[in-house]
From TrEMBL, chain A:
<comment type="similarity">
    <text>Belongs to the helicase family. RAD3/XPD subfamily.</text>
</comment>
<dbReference type="InterPro" id="IPR010643">
    <property type="entry name" value="HBB"/>
</dbReference>
<dbReference type="GO" id="GO:0003678">
    <property type="term" value="F:DNA helicase activity"/>
</dbReference>
<dbReference type="InterPro" id="IPR045028">
    <property type="entry name" value="DinG/Rad3-like"/>
</dbReference>
<keyword id="KW-0227">DNA damage</keyword>
<keyword id="KW-0067">ATP-binding</keyword>
<keyword id="KW-0547">Nucleotide-binding</keyword>
<keyword id="KW-0004">4Fe-4S</keyword>
<keyword id="KW-0479">Metal-binding</keyword>
UniProtKB/TrEMBL annotation, chain B:
<dbReference type="InterPro" id="IPR012170">
    <property type="entry name" value="TFIIH_SSL1/p44"/>
</dbReference>
<keyword id="KW-0539">Nucleus</keyword>
<comment type="function">
    <text>Component of the general transcription and DNA repair factor IIH (TFIIH) core complex, which is involved in general and transcription-coupled nucleotide excision repair (NER) of damaged DNA and, when complexed to TFIIK, in RNA transcription by RNA polymerase II.</text>
</comment>
<feature type="domain" description="VWFA">
    <location>
        <begin position="72"/>
        <end position="248"/>
    </location>
</feature>
<keyword id="KW-0805">Transcription regulation</keyword>
<dbReference type="Pfam" id="PF04056">
    <property type="entry name" value="Ssl1"/>
</dbReference>
<dbReference type="InterPro" id="IPR002035">
    <property type="entry name" value="VWF_A"/>
</dbReference>
<keyword id="KW-0234">DNA repair</keyword>
<keyword id="KW-0227">DNA damage</keyword>
Amino acid sequence: MKFEVDGLPVLFPYEYIYPEQYAYMLDIKRTLDAQGHCLLEMPSGTGKTISLLSLIVAYQQHYPEKRKLIYCSRTVPEIEKALAELQRLMAYRASHGRNEAFLGVGLTSRRNLCIHPRVSKEKRGSLTDAQCRNLTSPWVREAAKSDPEIELCEFYETLEGADMSATVPSGVYTIEDLKEYSQSKKYCPYFLARRLLPFANVIIYSYHYLLDPKVADLVSRELSKDCIVVFDEAHNIDNVCTESLSIDISRPILEASARSVADLSQRIDRMKVSNAEKLQSEYSMLLEGLRNTQEAREAGEIMSNPILPGDILSEAVPGNIRRAEHFVAFLRRFIEYLKASRHMTRMRVMHVVAESPTSFLQHIKEITYIDRKPLRFCAERLASLIRTLEINDLADFRSLQKVASFATLVATYQKGTISHCACICVASAGPFENDLDTIPNPVLHFTCLDATLAIKPVFERFSSVIITSGTLSPMELYPSLLGFEPTVTESYQMTLTRTCFLPLIVTRGSDQVTVSSKFEVRNDPAVVRNYGNILLEFAKITPDGLVCFFPSYLYMESIVSAWNDMGMLNELLKYKLIFIETPDATETSIALENYRQACDNGRGAVLLSVARGKVSEGVDFDHHFGRAVILFGIPYQYTESRILKARLEYLRDNNRIRENDFLTFDAMRHGAQCVGRVLRGKTDYGLMVFADKRFARVDKRTKLPKWILSGITEAGINLSTDMAVSMAKKFLRTMAQPLEGNQLGVSLWDAAEVRRRYPPKDESASAADAPIARVSGHSHYSNGHALVAMDTS
Amino acid sequence: MADAADEDERRESGRNYSWEEDYKRSWDMLLEDDQGSLQGIVANLQQQQLLLKRRRLNKDTDAVAQRGIIRQLFVVVDQSSAMAELDLRPNRLDCTLNLLEAFVTEFFDQNPLSHVGVTATRDGGAEKWAELSGNPADLVRVFAKRESRQTSGEPSLQNALELARRSLAHVPQHVSREILVVFGSLTSCDPGNLGETIESLASDHIRVSVVGLAAEVQACKRLCSATKGTYGVVMNDAHYKELLFDHIPPPALAVAQQSQSNIIQMGFPIVRTFDLPVLCICHQRPIRRGHICPRCAATICEIPTDCCICSLTLVSSPSLARSYHHLFPVPAFVEVPAAAAASAHPPAPAECFCCLAPFAKQRGPDDAYSLDANGTANGHGAAGSATSATAPHRPGPSAAAGAGSLAAATGAAALAPPSRFACPLCKTQVCLECDVYIHDVLHNCPGCLSGGHPAGR
């Protein structure tokens, strides 16, 4: 259908549109016009992705600037889904006579893209990367010229050989399409995708390509300023930001890096004998290299990388690490210090040391005379050395790289950005390997406490950033956490002809004992029994799949074993099979697979999982895979964690967010995320059971997304188990009835309905704009083919 | 001691004390209107139900070339412990068996050429209660047995379906083969993959329909859609009966079966009254009044059935004639919008052709009240009581009142449903009640039979 959004003609590849989709588009349009950022919460399963894409593509094609869209999603399946939607949209536009030159690509890791017959067989991503580098790094290719014995990747070679003349027909390439096209042309899909980025109208990739400084520098540096950036499923974005600047160093890592340093010094010795001038040239090149980056940055070409702060470029690399052998000695000393430092040694007692980077640096200076300044250059210097030594197998040097980036980070973020005294080293006695192992396993956590550090460059660089998800509530904290000013903050409701989800807040068991996962009462037999009863009762009445979420693995284990002792699991097995999520990813995926099979076969299954685990984040339980979800307790974080405490303290001091507010915010967004798993569309239906007394309190409840809140009735707030069960029974029966009545005009609009509700303003103006847009579209591309330029460096 | 034993038994059978029973929020659906009256809302609910029913009745009347009048139906009864739930009165299983008794009787009444068998499933297995038989009395006896009313364990959908499938395997192609599953449990404890059974059922052209008693189970949904059956979940006792009785009219034949036509032998036995009791051939029971098989002259106590000597299908000719209407249904009536009726030339009739009740106009609820009494008085009582006699699931005594109070529901004018329906052939206009009655019970259009309405001539 075709309609106008605030004067912008939009082609929408479906016959009908939901009212909330229209409102959503309207708000995005406003944001884009204002060149601002926005924060939008749209219920899951209401066609978020397609409305986003169709509006932005319409916007691109309508205005002569052709602002590029960067769409960031979380997982590979989500990227695939977005690409498929885009493909559908473009096919629809083409069928309506809009034959635009348009290029949409998705980028993901080599692991998913590689088509090399041997390398693509590798199971692990890091191995694929390493193998690929062995075949494609410049010095290997250089060496291969003289020695035909050395194996190269033919796909990469063809791509390189194709040089400037390589063209890609315009269109949208899903990951499969890209592989197929590359297969036919013998190109390497991964590098092809990377080369296409500057030419693509729509780029779809993972968050990390934009947020993680290590990757962003490689991939996203050439994106222009007026790009439209979209973070989808962004409810967790602040954690992604902090994690991208956090590093954990354990004893094995230190030992591995010590070995790598020894290896490095041997290689340097060998090179000194064989190729001394190369080392010498590196010495002089080093300065130039940094200066080049600096020039590029001044021209506004590179995204500013937080790991490489501005002033580092204007300074020369400090003299004491300029020579390779000096640098190696420097590294050795640093690693020895870490090994011997109090973080690592004083672990005999279960003792936790937390200190700020300033005090860490102070101490390191006292003991080893290592300055802050050379530490800051550590990561860059190591990269340069590895290039010079022509080392391909980076997998071995992973640990050393980690240590080096730790050095850089710790030295950078204590003073460089004064207001963000953000990073704190927390060394803690980590979990023991098992119970018998009494030797503590100390871990040095370097944790970023301020999400703004990683995302600030994104907000500064791109004029429009759209943050959207199905569950962003409570929304008022995001601007403060991420440090930006949204022009539009909006939460949409779901318009439905029938209420297809039923939130129930169960506060007490059938025996009227209140249930709660509060620490003091969570192991109380009455609470355990009542939680068990809730599960049992709902397992009895829910068809097919039932998903349960617990606040933590620890609690899940203890309560499940208690249920087992009470004989409740045996009783439960009569109605459903039981599957349990474990921290192990493979185990969990096998459990999930069998869970789905049990749902398909009509046996029915219960999945017991954890609110912050893999299941709660990336797995959808649509239709019969999740007819009900039970949230046992509020998924608060483990509040005794030192890292969390430090973060809370930081937020209190700097963002004026009270500890309790943040904890509730975090718990409720995870809770909402969990219950949102069951509802993936308007034809879907499901029960949402919140089993905790505290959910009934206004301050908790109101933090749920608006669309879930709208489903909570007065009667559903304070229920005992039996009341909830009888309401649920009735709901399930009602939902099983065939869909009656016409949704048209209520929750579905056709083009005429849209026009009736939002009469177009000035048709003459928009009609005049259109030809201009189309003309400029052709000036960029020749004959519908996008030129692929190669950077030959 | 006795109490404790009692308690145990009660616990095991899954029953609860009445004070432990489900919450019933019966007040929720009742909202008073502006005048504090409940009349409007009750009438509205009835109206809605009638409309739903009409839609259902009209759903498959059109464009069906052939129906499978000869049917072989297997009823699968879930006998698992889930059937002991009390949400249907007296419990799910008892309610089911009582309804099935009525169902079987009605079924043979409407489909005299058909056979019905029964299997049950419990404890993960399946057992056959009755082979395919043409005699409703046998089946009713099976349902009444005490062991039929005991529940235990989990059901196995696959075992039950396989058992029924094997029993239906030898039935010739031209016969419509069906399985009707009454499924109270939400889980199925199967030995293998249910998907394979579904595939083989679909390839055997066996139509499987499921009546769920609790909630929608995906496996059942898949089963029904793969075998072109229907799937319904009951809301309450009345709805249960409605869903079950939906399976009485014969289904449309699949295209693959349509082209074949067969000639079937059947006998119309003579009824004889004996002065002295004689033993019937089928049950060896003394009877005074029996049916004599025209081929072998055996004395049979009840028809329809198959003669147990010569296995000739014995039916009574009136009941055969009754199944005729399945082949020539009354066409679906067309809704006449109120606006079209007002502007029509010549002016549209002011009252229903059948019951002579005036068609609803935009009236206040007060008017509707007085009308209510009138409506019942002028002849609607007959239609109403007839309807409730054959379909007692219609909300009891107020069924007749519902017709008159059509107007009460039109308080909210925008939501008012269309009140007149016209026969596409003779153009007579009838009210909603009569429309449903004509399609559900009468199976003849009064307008067409009486030579058309004056307006249509």
